[in-house]
Design goal:
Layout: E1 4-5, H1 19-28, E2 33-39, H2 45-50, E3 57-68, E4 78-85, H3 92-118, H4 125-130, H5 140-149, H6 156-164, E5 177-178, H7 179-188, E6 192-196, H8 209-216, E7 222-226, H9 232-245, E8 248-251, H10 271-279, E9 287-288
Helix pairs in contact: 5-6
The protein binds adenosine monophosphate (AMP), fe (iii) ion (FE) (2 copies) and zinc ion.
């Protein structure tokens, strides 16, 4: 059975392997299908495509930073991630929104660095951005690496647990895309949209299942069920929900190189689910090496 991992990150965003490096790691792990889904950029697509070995397929995608109503009356919106696959990367709305989000990311990371420096932490803009290739999408993991380099913490995970978690004194929010708008954009560009790790509770507040049901009726194609941040009970809940409202079920590692402990291919997507997603896309083709 082909092994399919539909969610990975490279140095085009907050992974530690180059796009070609992610492809190489995927090939070494015996994956047959790999999706590259960097945060808010398609900047890694060409390098990954050029590195594709014979016999492997590449799904070009991205992970969009979004906000969504949480589904609990009176409570504020929550941060959510949307995976878009096989969309036209030249679609004007996507080009503009991804550029805006990357600007937002730089601005908010500078804000976080300033807050930490003001409190005496040995971080500065130059060091943090030294981990970021030109044009890549900046994120808290880049700041985390600077904190590791500065000897403040031992690991990226420790940096998140102690200093960089959502809501920490050093956290600065960014202005993300309403998830409905993002789904519409991905679809208008010929792509398919999948809700990434909707119940990753250890990252913060999550949506009620009713929100996923509602999005399913407004163009969402699938939901990521098998994800390292989902506990077994939530996987079961999501699987049942997906069956009810006809959402495609995916599984993925959310590989980030050495920034996270999960190896590539640790979670995978069933071939029939993958075929279903591909059949609904009309933007760019799956590439075959
Ligand atoms: P940002 O996009 O700047 O808000 O940062 C969020 C990113 O940080 C996610 O995409 C993950 O890659 C990473 N992240 C979030 N929580 C953790 C954690 N506990 N340990 C390591 N990385 C994390
Ligand atoms: Fe990430
Ligand atoms: Fe994510
Ligand atoms: Zn991700």
């Amino acid at each position: 059975m082909p092994r399919i991992d539909l969610h990975t990150h490279s140095t085009a965003s907050d992974g530690t392997d180059s796009p070609a490096g992610v492809v190489a790691v995927a090939a070494a792990a015996g994956l047959d299908v790999l999706a590259l889904t960097d945060h808010d950029t398609t900047g890694g697509w060409d390098e990954a495509a050029a590195a594709l070995p014979a016999g492997m397929q590449l799904v070009r995608g991205a992970e969009f930073s979004c906000v969504s109503p949480c589904g609990r009356p009176g409570e504020r919106d929550v941060s959510v991630h949307l995976l878009g696959y096989l969309f036209d990367p030249g679609h004007a709305a996507i080009v503009a929104e991804q550029a805006r989000l990357r600007e937002e990311r730089v601005h908010r990371l500078r804000g976080m660095i300033a807050k930490m420096a003001a409190d005496g932490y040995p971080v500065d803009v130059e060091t943090v951005f030294s981990f970021l290739p030109d044009g890549a999408a900046a994120g808290r993991p880049h700041l985390a690496r600077a904190l590791v380099a500065g000897g403040v913490v031992e690991s990226v995970s420790e940096a998140f647990a102690t200093l960089l978690y959502t809501g920490s004194p050093y956290y600065v929010p960014k202005s993300d895309t309403p998830v409905r708008t993002a789904i519409e954009m991905v679809r208008a560009a010929g792509g398919v949209a999948v809700f990434a790790h909707p119940l990753a509770r250890r990252r913060g507040r999550v949506v009620e299942p009713s929100v996923i049901v509602e999005l399913a009726s407004t163009g969402l194609a699938g939901v990521e069920v098998d994800h390292p941040d989902h506990v077994p009970e939530d996987r079961a809940l999501l699987r049942a929900l997906a069956a009810d409202v006809d959402l495609v079920v995916t599984g993925s590692s959310d590989y980030h190189g050495t920034n996270k402990p999960t190896p590539i291919g640790a979670e995978t997507t069933a071939p029939a689910a993958f075929e279903e997603l591909v059949s609904r896309a009309a933007g760019v083709p799956v590439l075959a090496g």
